[in-house]
Design brief:
Layout (H helix, E strand, L loop, with lengths): L2 H5 L6 H4 L4 E5 L2 E4 L4 E4 L2 H4 L8 H12 L12 H15 L7 E4 L4 H16 L4 E4 L8 H5 L4 H4 L9 E4 L11 H10 L10 E4 L2 E2 L5 E2 L2 H14 L2 E5 L23 E4 L12 E4 L19 H14 L4 H23 L4 E7 L2 E6 L2 H13 L2 E2 L1 E3 L5 E4 L7 H19 L2
Parallel strand pairs: 3-15, 5-6, 5-7, 7-10, 10-11
Antiparallel strand pairs: 1-2, 2-3, 4-12, 8-9, 11-12, 13-14, 14-17, 16-17
Helix pairs in contact: 4-11, 5-11, 12-14, 13-14
Amino acid sequence: MDIFEHLESNVRRYNHLFPTIFVSAQGAIIYDDEKREYIDFFSGAGALNYGHNNPQIKRSLLNYLENNGLVHGLDLQTKAKAEFMSAFESIILKPRNLDYKIQFTGPTGANAIEAALKISRLAEGKSNIIAFTNSFHGLSLGALAVTANSFYRNEKFVNRQNVSFLPYDGYLGDSINTIEYLEKTLRDPGSGVDIPAAVIVETVQAEGGINIAKTSWLRNLSRLCQDLGILLIIDDIQAGIGRAGTFFSFEEAGIYPDIVVLSKSLSGFGLPMSLVLLKPELDKWQSGEHSGTFRGNALAMVTAAASLQEFWQNDVLVKKVRQWSEIIYNQLDQMKHLFSKDITGARGKGMLFGLQLREPDKVKTIIHHCFQHGLLVEPCGPENNVIKLAPPLNIDEAILLKGLSLLNNAVQAVLGD
């Protein structure tokens, strides 16, 4: 009997997209138990921005283990933590003139979202939070409260309060400035929307369908939050760590969020790690007030420090992402024009792209065709009508082009009838 069918819960998802048993991986290639290879445009749902088993990062991890380095550290002062924080400050924060305290939370992105919402309410003495249409911030109860997708919110007997949803950039059409709508709502005492402790936003809504906020929209949102004394939380869990083209996805907008949430590719190796960056004046926690047994994953800190040293001490990776981004966009745009009857959008930023179709069933068929021919991609959007592409940032050009060719072949096969 299949052990997965026999024992594992029905809640699993990705096995339905990729029905095989994977055994090894290197860079942008994954191998299954029958030695078939797959080009990975999935990247562990954004947790593998540098691909699988990067040799430089792996070497640092193996060396640490060979020397019996502490693996589990709670919030103890460890060498692994000190080296990560030193690298993060010198390589990431100081060059960007950012002054943040670092809070290590539980290992998932949802853990970090929970902490960010909690400290916002604690620091501001207010309960309401503003979130946006098509947002996705996680599936624990606090994170789910600021997640818009009805599929995930469709549980019973749960009361989610103190969150107001307002339209994201472009949600009401390109001609409507939703920041003006937001400002009118917040300034009007008759709107029914309480002034919140914080606004939480993704600069690129990945699970929401690859919706991209304009830099002007983000700047105006930041200005409005400052004018009204509202904290701005940037959820950079999926769009950060270079995925949107710069280490933080908000850099292009030139804003300075009050709180930033990081996870997914933070460890650089697929190991679980999350943190909250908060302005020093917001660090109002009492000792032990927010905790978690696995907030001290030393192995993830070792690989995170190694990834910063390997990829972020110069602009080589950023330049490569720009180059690959143009290639991806041009190819998706060609598919859109060739099959304009079925494809309604081709959009993205950095190396996070989406191809939107009218019919979710055709998305499902294209993804299955890709899998059968050696390419891993996944659907996104509230209707699962967008094919999401998230290749490793440091992918070889030949592999990138081969993967795009496989996608094009699948699109031709399904839409070319």
